[in-house]
Automatic annotation (TrEMBL):
It comes from Paenibacillus ferrarius. Pfam families: cNMP_binding, HEAT_2. PROSITE patterns: CNMP_BINDING_3. One of its GO terms (molecular function) is oxidoreductase activity. Residues 877-981 form the Cyclic nucleotide-binding domain. This is Cyclic nucleotide-binding domain-containing protein. SMART domains: cNMP.
Length: 1010
């Protein structure tokens, strides 16, 4: 079923909730319907439904108020207990009636309304719980299992009701429901405590500290807005009509079923037993349907699925009308009711959601809730009002069934028109929601190649809007139908390279002729390398024209763009063109040898084709000075499973940037089980960053049982080990080296965080990943209350108890451990020179050398790497960066000295560098409208200039000139700065703040001059 270890842990906790609640819901429904129909009268069923439709808005309003006043977990628990209480009270009343031999006829409408509230809200509560407790992808995997559990509960309930109804009576069937809900509540409460409460820590604090004043309500569009918009849209009107008529038809068949069943079984126990039998059959059919529903949905699509459901409704009501007065009538109406129920609530409901996917995100919920509110009340009212014709004695049951056939026929027509209106609405929405629409279209239209909706897409291939054409091409491409090839070949001359790419992706060359292939091959000379590369990929799939495809692709090994060559080599290997393998080898050597972007694609080629003979060459690229090449090489080594590189990759981790660390970690994961011995050898490594990388990779590779056996004990021991590094900042402070002490303190904090990060990575494999992520966030929160609550959850032994307690101890450690020096400071510096962390060793060596020669700093002309890091730490732009990140910037920064009156920036001229002032002053000036020069301000040490123009090379809007003697600066080139901003958004935020300050200076100058 595609379930994972983390899914299984959650399933064992949640399946009993769905199973016991499914039994309770079905027992409750079966019993109260039998009691109401038998003791109050089925002819009054339409009245009670009309009354229920009227009070549903009030019910929703009260529940919304309750949700706003209670924490989420408490709200869900309270609602569950309210439902148990309602069932328990009703059960007690019913058993009291039976024991005392009394009855009160007007109690049964109250029983109906309260019990139906439980049926309605329990279903919503169960599914909302599933979605709240499971991330989106996990929910997709587990939802079929939850549905199967609920369905199995329905089957069990049907069998129980069938037997208990005969033996003990309907009251006993009803009274059993709250007992089973209590069993479900035990697991429900545990699941909330383990998975939901940690996720809502901050929200719970907010609700607790909320002031007595009413909170500000979010601005919402009035319901009248959505009503007007729907009246203007034939598509939305069609959708609402479908959502209204489908439940109306269901309520009509339900009335037919209950009326016919009451006439057939006048004894209450027999009626309850029959209801139970139908429920068991109903949910058995549902369970069988679940095995094929996903494939059926993917094949038919939501539009055809809804159309098929309406056809089933029409056919079911038709058979009911024809046989109602015959011996087969009870079987026809019972079978139709059972099938209608399953199709409406388990199949049609998810399909409805696609109607609203094309609405703007900000208004989507408004449309959805308004439409569902109208449809729910409207469907109940229409079904109930039509059923009243029989209750009033105006028509017989058989004519009412034929009236149901007529309504079902209208439903089929509405579904047909809605299906055809969908494509038009899809195109109308294309510009605002283009990224998602191809998936939505595929889900709605389905995989039927002869679909009229799919063919209608051809009409949009000449649309003036590129987004519309691209969408049409994506939808056509998903059909993988070669019949569209002639239409697509006709688009070869498109001006937009984006459309040409979409055309190629939509093509299917299976069955293409040589002439077709020749025409498609014209894309191989396209000016856009992306188009040429896509064409190579497409031609390689024409396996029935292997020799011709080989001819066209072989030439592209000489292309001037590495991506095209990359695709060409892969295509020739896919075609198994052995005669070209030597040429492919030459192309790969050329890519790896050229370096830069060519080497990146060379690594991708070697990785995709698993060419192990190039492993040593790729390994050598890890020493390349270009970060992109190193990242690609690490990825390639992982794909090749070259485990001999693991020790070298681990040594790179401490000084690697974020992108490289992610690539190294992914490489370890890609190596799979082969990497385990080398990684396990580093689970006790002294360097926290190397330890972090090793245990994080092992957490991904080992299953839960192996993690507990091989990783927990070493992790606990490593976390609880004393960290002698904490003594260094205090020693430096005592020696009066505050700058170095601050840097060393930050580095110790980073080492501590590396240990904590590794522990959280392992913990995530023993508990829900979202819970672990939320607890980690809570443990780092600024609020003491949030932090304490998070630590309290961790103290309960989340996941693995030993690991949780060790992590808790690690999180509780604070700076008090290194606030004082227990050893002589010089001895600590000497010891630090042999520690595992390179930065701390450098800091210690630097401090010792400074002590030996006090005047060393004044005599040094140029800054060392550590000097640069210390300086950068004092610049506001980089104050929040880690020591490693500061080291990366120091590594690309060059020190320059500029004489007095030198221009660093000139107004109107492009600038490719950013300057950080070490010593000296720089005047910023600009010209007024009258041609005069005005001073904006003077910058001094630890300030920056040129940061905004360096990123895009645009002309400078100001002039910057050295004044008052020479200036020493650190220079950062724009290309390197852009990459750092991409990797570390904190730098970008700092640059934005600096730029804003500069704009304010300019505004003040203009105001003064005005």
């Amino acid at each position: 079923m595609g379930l994972r270890t983390e899914d299984m842990r959650k399933l064992w906790m949640m399946l009993p909730i769905f199973y016991f609640s499914g039994i309770a819901e079905s027992l409750n429904y079966t019993a109260f319907m039998a009691l109401f129909n038998q003791r109050f009268g089925v002819q009054y069923l339409p009245y009670i439904y009309i009354f229920e439709a009227a009070i549903m808005p009030l019910e929703g309003w009260l529940l919304a108020k309750l949700a706003n006043r209670l924490p989420k977990a408490k709200m869900m628990t309270t609602l569950y207990l309210i439902m148990i209480g309602l069932l328990a009270v009703n059960g007690a009343v019913l058993l009291g009636f039976k024991a005392g031999g009394i009855d009160f006829r007007y109690y049964y409408p109250i029983l109906f309304l309260s019990s139906n509230f439980v049926v309605r809200q329990l279903t919503l509560l169960l599914w909302s719980t599933a979605f709240d407790l499971c991330p989106t992808q996990q929910a997709k995997r587990m939802m079929p299992v939850f549905i199967a559990s609920t369905t199995t509960g329905g089957i069990t309930a049907g069998l129980l009701a069938h037997q208990i109804g005969k033996l003990l009576g309907t009251e006993a069937v009803y009274a059993l429901a709250p007992v089973l809900m209590v069993l479900g509540f035990v697991f429900f409460r545990k699941a909330l405590a383990r998975y939901l409460v940690p996720l809502t820590l901050k929200e719970d604090i907010r609700l607790k500290t909320q002031s007595a004043a009413e909170p500000k309500e979010e601005t919402q569009l009035p319901a009248g807005y959505y009503a007007k918009q729907m009246l203007r849209s034939p598509f939305l009107l069609c959708a609402v009509a479908l959502m209204t008529l489908m439940p109306a038809v269901y309520f009509m068949i339900e009335y037919q079923y209950f009326t016919a069943a009451e006439a057939k079984f006048p004894v209450e126990g027999d009626l309850t037993s029959f209801y139970g039998l139908i429920t068991a059959i109903q949910f058995t059919f549902c369970l069988l349907l679940q095995t094929v529903s996903t494939r059926l949905m993917n094949w038919l699509g939501a539009s055809n699925m809804l159309l098929a459901i309406t056809v089933v409704f029409f056919g079911g009501f038709g058979l009911t009308a024809m046989f109602l007065n015959q011996s087969l009538g009870i079987f026809m109406v019972s079978g139709s009711y059972a099938i209608f129920y399953i199709l409406l609530y388990y199949i049609a409901e998810p399909c409805y959601q696609l109607f609203f996917k094309m609405m703007p995100i900000s208004k989507r919920d408004g449309y959805r809730y308004f439409a569902q509110g109208v449809a729910a009340s409207g469907g109940i009212l229409i079904g109930s009002l039509l059923s009243l014709l029989h209750s009033f004695g105006l028509i017989q049951l058989s004519p009412l069934a034929w009236l149901g056939v007529a309504v079902a026929a209208i439903l089929v027509v509405v579904a047909w028109f809605g299906r055809n209106l969908y494509v038009r609405e899809l195109v109308k929405s294309v510009q605002s929601l283009h990224a998602d629409l191809s998936e939505i279209a595929g889900s709605f239209i389905g995989g039927i190649r002869s679909s009229k909706a799919l063919s209608a897409m051809l009409g949009y291939l000449k649309h003036p809007n590129d987004y519309v054409r691209e969408l049409a091409l994506e939808v056509i491409g998903k059909a993988k139908d070669s019949a569209f090839l002639p239409h697509l070949i006709g688009m070869i001359g498109e001006e937009s390279s984006r459309i040409r790419l979409a055309v190629l992706r939509a093509m299917n060359l299976q069955g293409a002729t040589i002439q077709d292939l020749v025409q498609v091959a014209s894309f191989l000379e396209d000016e856009d390398p992306e188009v040429r590369a896509e064409c190579v990929k497409l031609i390689s799939k024409a396996t029935h024209l292997r020799s011709q495809s080989h001819f066209f692709i072989r030439v592209k090994l000489l292309d001037n763009h590495p991506k095209v060559v990359h695709e060409g080599v892969k295509a020739l290997y896919a075609l198994e063109s052995e005669e070209s393998y030597q040429a492919c080898d030459e192309a790969i050597i050329k890519m790896l040898d050229n370096g830069g972007e060519w080497a990146v694609y060379g690594c991708h080629t070697v990785a995709d084709l698993k060419l192990h003979t190039y492993a040593a060459w790729v390994l050598s690229l890890l020493d390349d000075h270009r970060p992109a090449v190193k990242v690609a090489a690490a990825h390639c080594i992982g794909q090749l499973q070259h485990v001999e590189a693991i020790p070298f990759l681990l040594t790179m981790v401490p000084l690697a940037d974020q992108e490289m660390r992610k690539a190294i970690l992914q490489a370890f994961v890609d190596m799979g089980e082969k990497a385990l011995p080398a990684l396990l050898a580093h689970v006790n490594h002294a360097n926290p960053f190397i330890w972090n990388a090793a245990v994080t990779a092992l957490a991904e590779l080992l299953d839960e049982s192996m993690l507990r056996k091989q990783l927990v004990d070493p992790c606990v021991a490593r976390m609880l080990a004393s960290t002698q590094e904490r003594a260094l900042p205090a020693a430096l402070n005592e020696l009066g080296m505050k700058g170095l002490a601050e840097l060393a303190g930050q580095r110790c904090t980073e080492l501590h965080q590396a240990l904590v990060g590794g522990a959280w990575a392992v913990m995530a494999k023993f508990a829900d990943e979202r819970v672990v992520a939320t607890l980690r966030e809570a443990a780092e929160d600024e609020s003491d209350e949030v932090r304490d609550n998070g630590l309290e959850v961790l103290a309960e032994g989340l996941g693995d108890r030993r690991l949780a307690l060790a992590l808790l101890e690690l999180l509780k450690q604070d700076d008090a451990a290194h606030s004082s020096v227990k050893q002589e400071p010089h001895l600590i510096l000497q010891e630090a020179k042999s520690w595992s962390d390179d930065w701390l060793k450098d800091i210690a060596s630097y401090a010792l050398s400074s002590l030996e020669r006090v005047d060393m700093r004044e005599e040094r002309k140029f800054l060392t790497m550590l000097d640069k890091v210390i300086f950068l730490k004092q610049v506001s732009l980089f104050a929040d960066l880690s020591v490693d990140e500061l080291g990366l910037i120091a590594g690309i920064a060059t020190e320059e000295v500029h004489e007095d009156l030198t221009y660093l920036l000139r107004r109107g001229q492009s600038n490719a560098a950013m300057y950080l002032i070490i010593e000296g002053n720089v005047e910023l000036s600009n010209e007024t409208g009258e041609g005069e020069t005005g001073t904006i301000g003077v910058l001094g040490p630890k300030q920056a200039l040129g940061e905004t123009t360096a990123l895009d090379g645009s002309p400078s809007s100001i002039t910057a000139q050295v004044i008052f003697d020479e200036v020493r600066v650190l220079t950062l080139q724009g290309e390197s700065l852009s990459r750092l901003v991409r990797l570390y958004p904190e730098i970008g935020i700092g640059l934005l703040h600096a730029s804003s300050a500069r704009v304010r200076l300019l505004e003040n100058m203009l105001l003064k001059m005005a």
